[in-house]
Amino acid sequence: MVRVNTHYQKLQAGYLFPEVQRRIKAFSAEHPEADLIRLGIGDVTEPLPAACRDAMATALEAMGTGTGFHGYGPEQGYHWLRQTIVQHDYQQRGCPIEADEIFISDGSKCDTSNILDILGDDNRIAVTDPVYPVYVDANVMAGHTGPADDQGRYSGLQYLPLTADNDFCAPLPAPPVDLVYLCFPNNPTGAVATRAQLQRWVDYARSHGALILFDAAYEAFIQDPELPHSIFEIPGARDCAIEFRSFSKNAGFTGTRCAFTVVPKTLTGHTRDGDAVSLWQLWGRRQSTKFNGVGYVVQRGAEAVYSPAGQAQVAQLVKVYMKNAAVIRQQLQGLGLAVYGGQHAPYVWVKTPDSMGSWQFFDQLLNGAHVVGTPGIGFGAAGEGYLRLSAFNSRAQVEAAMARIAQCRLQ
Ligand code: MLT
After folding, report:
1. Which terminus of the chain has fewer CB atoms gathered within 10 Å of its CB, N or C?
2. Could you tell me if 207 and 93 lie in one domain?
3. Position in ligand 1 atom list of the atom nearest CA 109
């Protein structure tokens, strides 16, 4: 008899985005004439930067030649891409990161889950609430939690509330934890961390021997030059943090797949006997065994993000989406709604009107305005009473969505 991983049976309903899709599909089946505007899942809509497309086209041509063909690449990524990333994203910001501490991958969603492979089963873990659901579900699947309570909170996890009262900035864990997931700019609240706030986290992690899993997938959307883009801009972070970065949101690689994870060589975990073990070595070993690397063509595309043309085109993409976020913020504020985020992140976190529940507001916008958002409660119990709107769409669609919401709210 084949046994299954019964930890999966603890998972709540479907993964959030497929569940939203299921509801949209049901609505569309009943209302085939409805022209939906999707501001739900954070999937980009603008085409790839021309510099990336051209680099990939050139690489693809080369793959069809005897001299330009590439078979298996290094599992950790080609050195030329790792070196380029280090120069632009780290050394130019004064972060002491080396090329062989960069591990190229096919996505931050995969890496933030897969990282659990190299960590023990008995770590005390903290997540924010609301949170990107992948961090929680991956821990449930790995058997790191007990069952969920009727609010959807799993026993064995410490939830750090992100609320308007604490400016969506999580309090430090008490009692102490070994592992904490942080995401800045934040998905879903759109909040961003200052240098002083990140320093508090690094100091906390170092004094408790904890590890910070820092998801910086949205760093390109930071507008204020004073705000840190990387945890490694913070002194001491090399001893307590792993960082996840992605080309999905800045350069539109959601369908192309390329990301990277930074594991400093100075980072250690411990065996039960207290012996220090290099996490860099473990992650390298894990990737060499379970991953065959990102395709050569895609890595050439990612390299082009850092070319002068690529940088200008990425800046333009960010500008388009951030202007959308500003339009969403402005229009909804004009309707008297409380809105958060959207200033350094492509997500606007909207307080539902009249203490309405998240799914109720989702349904109201879907039925009344044919606009799709993401219910805040899907990101955790503390997300109840909020809805997330994504700025990833065309300006025309965002403006049309806001006009429809205004009309439906005024009725
Ligand atoms: C989101 O909508 O939260 C994102 O699409 C999640 C992701 O990047 O996987």
Report:
1. N
2. yes
3. 9
CATH code of residue 373 = 3.90.1150.10
How far, in Å, from the CA of 42 to the mean position of ligand 1?
A: 5
286, 306, 326 - which closes a domain: 306
How crowded is residue 26: how many other Cβ atoms within 10 Å of its Cβ?
10
**Cβ atoms of residues 301 and 53 within 8 Å:** yes
Is 41 near ligand 1, meaning CB less than 6 Å away?
yes
165/285 same-domain check:
yes
* One domain for residues 283 and 196: yes
37 shares a domain with 131: no
Cα–Cα dist 49/301, whole Å: 9
As a 3-state breakdown, the chain gives helix, strand, coil percent values, each rounded to 5, of: 45, 15, 40
CB distance 344 to ligand 1 below 6 Å: no
Triad 324, 330, 331: Cα angle to 5°: 90
Structural domain harbouring 333: 6-47+309-410
Whether the CB of 187 sits within 6 Å of ligand 1: yes
Please check whether residue 376 lies inside any domain of the structure: yes
pLDDT in tens, 154-209: 999 999 999 999 999 999 999 999 999 999 999 999 999 999 999 999 999 999 99
Closest CA to ligand 1's atom 9:
109
Whether residue 397 is contained in a domain is answered as yes
Q: How many whole angstroms separate alpha carbon 164 and alpha carbon 176?
A: 24
Token couple for 164: 């308007």
What's the gap in Å between 379 CA and the centre of ligand 1? 11
Q: What is the pLDDT of residue 15?
A: 63
Out of 266, 289, 306, pick the residue that ends a domain: 306
Q: Is the CB of 249 under 6 A from ligand 1?
A: no
User: Does ligand 1 lie within 6 Å of residue 42's CB atom?
Assistant: yes
Same domain, yes or no: 15 and 144? no
Read off the pTM. 0.97
pLDDT of residue 150: 86
Give, rounded to a whole angstrom, the gap between the first and last alpha carbons of the chain: 59
Domain assignment present for residue 1? The answer is no
Nearest-atom number in ligand 1 for the CA of 43 is 5
| C-alpha 248 – ligand 1 centre gap (Å) | 10
Each residue's pLDDT tens digit, 194-249: 999 999 999 999 999 999 999 999 999 999 999 999 999 999 999 999 999 999 99
